[in-house]
Amino acid sequence: MTTTFTDETRERARDIIARYPADRSRSALLPLLHLVQAEEGYVSPAGVAFCAEVLGLNKAQVGAVATFYTMYKRKPTGDFLVSVCTNTMCNVLGGQEVYDTLAEHLGVGHDETTADGTITLEHAECLAACDYGPVMTVNYDFFDGVDASTAVGVVDELRAGGRPMPTRGARLCTLKEMAVQLAGFADERDGAVADGGPGEPTLRGLRLAQQHGVSVPGFDPNTPIRSKAEADKAAAEAKAKAEAAKPAPVEASAAPVKGGDGASAPTGAAGVAEPAKPEAASGSTTRDVKAPDDKSPQVRTAETRQPDAGTAVPDAPGTKVPTDGTGTAPAAGDARSAEAAGVAANAPAGDGKPAGDEAGAQERNLTEAKAATDADGAGPADANETGAQK
């Protein structure tokens, strides 16, 4: 089935792409996948094709991203995605029991949806709320400290058309509505934004530190955070101070500088001795040069390693252009001719023996061994005994 996305979705797609530089438009792929999921409830093949079309990518590139992140669903999902944490902390506190109870109560397993299309159940590796475990989320909004009975109560209320209030955050919305927010668009519903602070389990460590007088050395909670302008000014002052602390350059002397052999070293126009140039690397016919930034490492490696050095551009440090022994680089095509000659001189391996293992060589070796045995006057048994001794 081919899905034709609405004009609103296409307009939002243009808005998303416009958030990124023109040469970095593929960075918009993640929010675009949320956008198509907001319309269809999952990332369908049509959604993959849509993202590829608007970004100028192929479908394989889009599919690779869509299958990597678990937030992108690859099959139709219910209105409410119920995720139960079964990782270590929540599991110890009863998370697996919560999941097993919900699976039996709803009659579905992991990543499966109820017959009425309301609930999709999944177990999550970690929901990043260990201090509130066991936890579960509904469309990524938290229900903290749940047990089997409270979890069943939440899903029953959802199936009855209700919207139970999460422990933290705003009131619930459907998965499609949540996908719009994840794509970067504000939720205009009443009550979509909720105030709130950290809960007591999160603050427990801070309370203990205050109670026992534990703090970071030199920490001042009243220190204001500097603005960008203030930070830039401080950085400029530090840079100027570092420049001023640098030692002054030593002025050149008019006297000639003696070399290691007592002779005067070459000097430049200002009478300053020129530094000695390093010797060329042994076997190299080119000097080391900085590799250009506009060439990929793969291309650079292929060019510097190619046998046809007549067309090679030695652009990487330490490049050694192959020569024919006289210091002259071989002409283009010589390497291919040499390769063809080598292939012709080395027959491919047969089914019964390795390459180069000819029957004539075997017969010749056996004949020579027999002749040596006869010359020594030893029979076959003696020859075997001699070989064993050796």
Helix/strand-derived category reads mainly alpha
Task: Summarize the helix and strand pattern as letters.
Answer: HHHHEHHEEEEHHHHHHHH
Total strands: 5
Q: How many separate helices?
A: 14
Biggest sheet descriptor: 5 strands, mixed
Oligomeric state: single chain
The percent of residues in helical segments reads 40-55%
Strand content: 5-15%
**Outline, from the CA principal axes?**
extended
Task: Show the helix and strand layout.
Blueprint: H1 7-17, H2 29-40, H3 45-55, H4 59-66, E1 80-85, H5 88-92, H6 95-106, E2 112-113, E3 119-124, E4 136-138, E5 141-143, H7 148-159, H8 175-182, H9 200-212, H10 228-244, H11 297-305, H12 334-345, H13 359-376, H14 380-389
Parallel strand pairs: 1-3
Antiparallel strand pairs: 1-4, 2-3, 4-5
Helix pairs in contact: 1-2, 2-3, 2-8, 3-4, 6-7
Please outline what is shown here.
This protein has about 400 residues and is mainly alpha-helical. The chain is about 40% helix and about 5% strand. Strands 2-3-1-4-5 form a five-stranded mixed beta sheet.
Please give a structural write-up.
By secondary structure, the chain is mainly α. Helix content is about 40%, strand content about 5%. The protein is built from 14 helices and 5 strands. A 5-stranded mixed beta sheet has the order 2-3-1-4-5. Helix 6 (about 95-105) runs parallel beside helix 7 (about 150-160). The radius of gyration is 38 Å and the shape is extended.
